[in-house]
Design a protein that fits this description.
By secondary structure, the chain is an alpha/beta fold. The protein contains 6 helices and 11 strands. The longest helix has 18 residues. The chain starts with 5 loop residues before the first helix and ends with a strand. The model has no long low-confidence stretch (mean pLDDT 85).
């Protein structure tokens, strides 16, 4: 199954007894390359500070004498800082026999939506113009994001609010997987999920979900 990494397998073992078999894995990703340059700049700044605050004796070389080491340490520091952004760069939405699961990295952050809790009539796929995202264009009294920002999104209502799983990829396979799981679970209105949700609605102006 595509996207079934160690994190997904761990969540599958943990949630399987409650939600049944895993059917589909949707991935939302966005690597923050724009943050690389600022992180490297911070790394070099820390390296420069370290050159001045490190205790030295008369036998030790002067400041910035070992320039290759300074460049190496500063660059590695910047890369370590940038690597922390990768924790925010990837999200998964799992489709099980019994519902959806998101934010699966930790047990206490995991969000589970069982099929009876999801209003099948509100399951939709949307897309926006390049440079904007559904989370910016769609308004609701209660709205939360489950993915990383992207121009495409799956939208549904559950637990008294709307939830968005944004992605840069095609959301049609996710919609079809949800419809089939709902049909197999006997959810009312599941038969019309794909016909209502696809093709994705194009959102060009700010739109209310309520």
């Amino acid at each position: 199954m595509r996207g079934r990494n160690w994190l997904v397998r761990r969540a599958e073992r943990r949630l399987g007894p409650e939600l049944g078999a895993l059917r589909f894995v949707a991935t939302s990703s966005k690597v923050y390359w724009k943050a690389l340059a600022p992180c490297l700049a911070v790394g070099f700044a820390y390296g420069a500070v370290g050159e001045f605050v490190t205790p030295r004796s008369s036998r030790e070389p002067g400041l910035f004498t070992d320039l290759p080491m300074y460049l190496l340490v500063s660059t590695l520091t910047g890369l370590v800082l940038w690597s922390l952004t990768l924790l925010l760069s990837f999200r998964k939405l799992l489709v099980f026999d019994g519902g959806l699961a998101a934010r699966i990295a930790q047990k206490h952050t995991t969000v589970v939506f069982r099929w009876p809790e999801i209003d099948a009539a509100t399951v939709k796929a949307v897309t926006t113009a390049e440079g904007t995202t559904p989370s910016r264009m769609l308004a609701a009294g209660r709205k939360a994001s489950l993915g990383v920002s992207g121009r495409n999104a799956l939208v549904f209502r559950a637990a008294g609010g709307f939830w968005l799983f944004e992605s840069r990829g095609d959301t049609a396979p996710l919609v079809l997987a949800i419809q089939q799981a709902m049909l197999d679970a006997g959810v009312p209105g599941a038969a019309g999920v794909a016909s209502r949700a696809l093709p994705p609605a194009v959102v060009t102006t700010r739109t209310s979900l309520d």
